[in-house]
Amino acid sequence: MLDWIHNHGTLLSWLTGASAVMFVATLIALPAMVARIPPDYFAHERRPPSRWAHHHPVVRVLFHIVKNAIGFVFIIAGIALLVLPGQGLLSLLIGFFMLDFPGKYRVEKWLVRRRRVLAAINWWRKRAGHAPIGVV
What is the mean pLDDT of residues 60-76? Predict the structure, then answer.
């Protein structure tokens, strides 16, 4: 084991650096993303139209491609961070919320309806000066 560590020092350095970057990115991104959720986002039967719905179709498609690519990177990094030092679960959550897939809104509503999750989200929103989220 020590031979492997000694022979792969560069790889371990890169993984340590990536872990530190993901940790800081998670600490910055999650509260910022939670604060941007409209207070009535989960009060609808169907997902409300996004802010990008009224933009040019090319811009909208490009935005979705970039957003899904970033979400995929967060998910891959989150899986890696489950065994490496860092915020694996939070990175996975950020990646999940950035991806677009059928049924995502139902999964989001189910998750936010959990009492502790809703309390944590509203605590972050209160610290950012935003109204609490209402869930139907």
Answer: 92
